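Before the break, one more example. Copy the sequence into your notebook; we will annotate it together after we see the structure.
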Amino acid sequence: MIEAHIFEVLKEIDPRPEREGLSGTPNRVAESLKFLTRGHQVNLDKLFEQALFQSDEKEIIVIQNIEFYSMCEHHLLPFFGKCHIAYIPNGQIVGLSKFGDVLETFARRLQVQENLTENIAMCIQKYVNPKGVAVIIEAKHLCMMMRGIEKQEAIFKTQKFLGELCLPEKQQLFFNLLSQK
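Here is what the structure looks like once it is written out:
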């Protein structure tokens, strides 16, 4: 179904959509779109099964520079960058790989960066139930780089703080940890 629609789009933008170089393009684009938006198929309940562990840890836990690739819902163009996540445990910790899984799940959905940031924070809050969550995303958007204003160096930053990580002293600790190499 997607392939037929892609062929119709190609007919609008190329005078010879049936030429050799484009002959497999509708199928390739369809498969690419399915891959790039596969986050809609993830069951978050299953993702967190057997991923939580009892712990007396009470200090902030930070994972930074998790790379991601996503698609802007406005132009269907990629945006990509790094995500930084922190949480303050509340009797349990979560397996480290789940941060990458959560980011990947939401990044592989059509949305805007603001919603991506919010969705990650709310998901961690729901499934891990920490005392606080912080998510910062820094990204470059091809819709700004390839079209429109064509600004190559612009970095868009979004943040979401929940619970104790809304407190200025906890936010400062998070920022200090991010600045350390």
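Helices lie at 2-13, 25-36, 44-48, 97-107, 113-128, 142-145, 168-179. The longest helix spans residues 113-128. Try to locate both features in your own notes.
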